[in-house]
Design brief:
Number of strands: 8
Low-confidence stretches: 1-39, 60-67
Strand content: 5-15%
Strand order of the largest sheet: 3-2-1-4-5-6
Distance between the termini: 42 Å
């Protein structure tokens, strides 16, 4: 016989609360009624009452909102130059199929036409792009208070396999987009971001492009140097040394470096504002003394290296200017002070984080959803009796994951709480990357609470850190 939390059994002496709750059990299907005789009846009653209250609250919320149901769905297969729009009704019948140019006047005519077809009913628009070529369309629909859903391209691609025919045309894709918007209920609406977040998204994207260009140019420079002057290639780290890049703008061949000598090369570098000019000159001349052979690639290779060094210098200047713009705009955001208070976040990383979440938490229902979008939540792959089979997600915002990862890595330097959590994960057998990802996931909870309550971060005391460790 099972015992209740109060100690009474369920034989002859039932709890008094049970008599008033048997009517609730009678309303449930017969398959659940044996639970009354074999399970904790008090717990079962509490569960029923909790479910009833939640149902009542959900009903009250739905009655208060009174959402209007859409009667017409417009799917748009977006492109750079043209869009294809297909309009369907509740039965899936095609009411309109039209290709339009990505032009404001033409798009306004399309909106007017679709609204006219709806004849007073609500129109639900859906598109497979949320930026780029669809930016003008999104802005026009928002200006006319039209509901717009975003359907990712991978959903459209997989859904196309369930429709008849193997062909792929814009009209078919637009028809699938409209049909998916009609049937699915979990699609996310396209929401507009504030002006600062839009600026940060463009600026941080440009910064990423410049970083990639810089890495590419440095790799090409090192590869070209290796063709005719390998000792100079391994003498410096050209990704960090400004003096080494300055050296390549004037003296980059063995005979040229031997001719100028250490003293004159030191003065030449110092006049161009290089630090540690004497040490750089010494390394360069030593590298020149180690090679006396002139290779056939030296004449052309030296010209290319000079151009690549100048290109890297220009990129560095543009990056400095871009970082200043990012910092200036980021500091004007209402959440700037909140994010900067968290260890690991500087102006650039915090601006990148804000740009990738849209400037606020409105697009995320829960902190778990934010973690999933950032790629910090494992996804289950359970089947049958196999459970707890967790894997790395495949679809997530990689820029957001990189931002959270780098911020977690940086926080180890000046946050005792982060260091304690990281050390605990390492002691559990986790690798460096696994421990950092776990730390980034824990920090997502902190970031969520900080942005939600608009409060700055306070480092926990030693007692709280001992609980974490």
């Amino acid at each position: 016989m099972f015992e209740s939390p109060s100690g009474s059994g369920y034989g002859t002496d039932r709890p008094a609360a049970l008599d008033g709750s048997l009517g609730m059990a009678a309303r449930y299907p017969p398959i659940t009624r044996p639970l009354i005789e074999t399970y904790d009846i008090d717990r079962w009653v509490r569960t029923c009452r909790r479910g009833y209250r939640q149902g009542q609250q959900k009903k009250e919320r739905s009655e208060g909102a009174e959402p209007a149901m859409s009667q017409v769905w417009a799917g748009i297969d977006s492109g750079k130059w043209t869009h294809h729009c297909v309009v369907i009704d509740q039965s899936g019948t095609v009411l309109l199929s039209k290709r339009v140019e990505n032009d404001e006047t033409v798009l306004l005519d399309l909106v007017e036409t679709v609204v006219g077809i709806a004849d007073g009913d609500n129109v639900c628009w859906a598109t497979d792009l949320n930026s780029g070529g669809a930016a003008l369309l999104i802005a026009l629909l928002a200006a006319h208070s039209q509901q717009l859903l975003y359907i990712p391209g991978w959903i459209v691609r997989h859904a196309a396999a369930t429709y008849r025919g193997n062909g792929k045309i814009d009209a078919k894709d637009a028809r699938i987009i409209a049909d998916q918007a009609r049937m699915r209920t979990e699609l996310q609406p396209v929401r507009g971001a504030d002006q600062i977040s839009v600026d940060l998204r463009l600026l941080t994207a440009r910064r990423t492009d410049l970083i990639c260009d810089r890495v590419r140019a440095i790799n090409r420079l090192r590869g070209t140097l290796l063709e005719y002057f390998p000792s100079l290639e391994r003498a410096f780290d050209y990704s960090k040394s400004k003096a080494a890049l300055t050296l390549l703008s004037g003296y980059l061949t063995p005979d040229g470096l031997r001719r100028i000598g250490i003293v004159r090369l030191t003065a030449w570098l110092k006049n161009r504002g290089c630090r540690n000019s004497a040490a750089v000159a010494q390394k360069a001349v030593d590298a020149a003394g180690a090679q006396r052979t002139v290779l056939a690639t030296q004449a052309t290779g030296s010209v290319l290296v000079t151009k690549l060094a100048a290109e890297i210098t220009v990129i560095d200047h543009e990056l400095a200017d871009l970082d200043a713009q990012i910092t200036e705009r980021f500091t004007r955001h209402e959440s700037a002070e909140v994010l900067l208070s968290l260890p690991g976040f500087g102006p650039v990383l915090a601006a990148t984080f804000l740009a990738n979440i849209g400037g606020n938490l409105d697009g995320f229902d829960t902190v778990d959803r934010l973690a999933a979008v950032a790629g910090l939540a494992p996804v289950p792959r359970d089947s049958g009796r196999i459970s707890g089979n967790l894997h790395r997600p495949r679809r997530f915002n990689r820029r957001l994951l990189r931002t959270c990862y780098l911020a977690a890595l940086s926080s180890l330097k000046n946050s005792p709480a982060s260091r304690a959590f990281y050390d605990r994960k390492r002691s559990e057998g986790k690798s460096h990357k696994q421990a950092l990802i776990a730390l980034a996931r824990r920090r997502i909870n902190v970031i969520w609470a900080m942005l939600r309550d608009h409060t700055t971060y306070q480092e926990p005391g030693p007692a709280a850190r001992s609980l974490v460790a």
